[in-house]
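Take a careful look at the protein record below. Let me know whether the structure tokens fit the sequence:
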Amino acid sequence: MSATIRAIGTAVPETTLEQAAVRDLFAAQPELGRLGRRLVPAAFDASAVEHRHTVLAELDRSRPAGAFRDTDGALHSPSTGTRNDRYRELAPPLFVEAARDALARADVDAASVTHVVTVSCTGFTQPGPDLDIVTELRLRRDVFRHHIGFMGCCAAFPALRIAAAFAEADPDAVVLVVCAELCTLHVRASDDPDQIVANSVFGDGAAAVVVTADGPGLRLDAFATAVVPESAGEMAWNIGDEGFEMVLSTAVPKLVGSSVAEAVASLLDGPAADVPVWAVHPGGRAILDRTQQALDLPDAAIAASRTVLRDHGNMSSATVLFVLREALDAGIPDGAAVVALAFGPGLTVESARLTMVRT
């Protein structure tokens, strides 16, 4: 018995940030030093992001000021507690909207859901989003609930492994996996190169999948995980006094390029280019470029990843599910292989091989 992703649902906040406008907002901050004034426009312009979404309406200069921006355009740096208060308020609707979309696309009744797995690394609250989903969608009160927290951009894969295990163990299991990230809650004006890169690429969004035993959809055939040696300090996600803090060294794209082929080797029967669809987490343009080069992939194989980066930016754990949804919408032939992969703190490479099953 195998497990299958029956459908993928997505949700984004209503505020869209145009990259040029948000670049100018960050570049105009008075506390930036000479280095920051040079790095901000360079990072934003090189990001390959055109627009992304945010729960912080005040990051759009045309909207009223708020806790993160005053009327003169100066950015504030609220405490971690204030940021997490906004997470508690604004994350649940995204979790629920993505879950509702996935169930509708799968044509699965909410009452049939047996397990809920939620994923997030951009805020904490308890009772958590798993209970919000159960309550708002009126799921059964005996639904099993699980939460994966603070694992970063690759966390969708542990969630999918859990879902697959449930579905393979019980042919009646209906597992709802929901990833939601409010990355822009942690932006702040800074001269720090890591923070500038984070400001330039991260957006907010949620994605959900319905996993069952067999059935039409993306069959989950195999998983792989690998830790790049001596790379623990190159990518990290820490809790600071003024928000969560990203460590993203300039060595990450090179490390990804040198390790990705070995990391996914167990999922391949031949050359990587023989797999027509690669759903690569678009952590940034350089990461996509290095991955494509290392695996010798044609542009078409990685097109969905570049589209999601352009239209949404990096939404941490939800992003790879957006990429799979983009690939599905573009059309994946029956029987075609798909490899999905993402990178997270560690430096960890998580991946999966899937097969499109139409009937």
Summary: The domain at 218-357 is CATH 3.40.47.10 (Peroxisomal Thiolase; Chain A, domain 1). The two ends are 16 Å apart (CA to CA).
